[in-house]
Amino acid sequence: MEDKTIIDLYWKRSENAIAETSHKYGGYCFCIANNILSNKEDSEESVNDTWLAAWNSMPPKRPDILAVFLGKITRYISLDRWRKRTAAKRGGGEVPLVLDELEECVAGKETVELQYLNQELSEVINHFLKELPETERNVFMCRYWYMDSIEDISKRFQFSESKVTSMLFRIRGRLKNVLEKEGFA
Amino acid sequence: MTSMELLNRLALVKEEYVLEAHADDIVQDKVVSFKRMSLKRRMILVALVAVMLMLVGCAVVWMKLQELKIGEYTHQNPYIQNGSEVTGYVISGQGFEGSKNYQAVKEWNDFYDNCDIEAALADEYIAPIE
Prior knowledge:
The complex is a heterodimer of chains A (185) and B (130).
Chain A: H1 3-11, H2 16-37, H3 40-57, H4 66-85, H5 95-102, H6 118-131, H7 134-144, H8 150-157, H9 161-182
Helix pairs in contact in A: 1-2, 2-3, 2-4, 3-4, 6-9, 7-9, 8-9
Chain B: H1 3-9, H2 15-21, H3 39-68, E1 69-76, E2 85-91, H4 100-114, H5 120-125
Antiparallel strand pairs in B: 1-2
């Protein structure tokens, strides 16, 4: 079923909306949740919460790309569930490793004024990603948006794991420079 | 800014970047990017398309050959002892069925098949010269 038709089902408050969404994007959302939570039950809960959040947000929203809209919701819910489940930084899944890697890009201190600069930060990150070559951008997104493991990324792009690791290291170095220059790190 | 904050802010990146990274997982309206397939799947797909094209070509050639057929004949398979008779087709490259060239060649072929080349019939009516 086309995305437009699925979104129309939400707007009509049809019971089939969730079933069709689950059929088309269930696997995709589960993959995102499981990368973060590494737990089947928690991941399924996150996916179910995603359908509820989608039901509550459409209408009034009518997303351009339904897959990304749902993926963002799943990612947010899963990260939130991970934070609640894990008091300490160390825990299951890829999130602790990802957080450790991103520590290189930031100073580690949260200042009050930065809370109001989220929009500006997003623009900076988008501009940074736009300047990256396509392959490097995709590797970065797979690691830090989808939280794929290094092994999965190396299989997806048919690189060696060391190549993926060194590529991410270089990208983080450039991101750090950009964030420092813009005053975010 | 903490690393968790940065991780959260990544949720606001452009949708096209999110889509591009996992394009092969996101079946958008049943269109899957050929570029995102693995080499093995691409090669299998190319091989399947080549086989399909070859089969279509063979079918077209077979159908066109039918239109070139001007007659049939039977003969015994020379490679099999006491084998059964097989049917062969006479085809002509003069033209397709319906064309004037085709009709002319067919008429000649029919005449040739039925004419008395060795004059066996004539011998029945003409008395031998003594």
